[in-house]
Amino acid sequence: ILKVCGDTGAIEKGKHIHDEVVRRGLLKNNNLVLGTALVDMYAKCGSYVKAQQVLEELPYRDVISWSTLISAYAERGQGHEALVCFERMQRDPWCRPRKVTYCLLLYGLGKNGQLGEARKVILEAMRRSKHEVVTREAYCHLVVGLCDSEQMCQAEEVVIEMHELGLEPDAHVYTSLVYGHANAGNIEESYRYYMGAIQDKL
Question: 176 with 144: CB under 8 angstroms?
Answer without folding.
Answer: yes
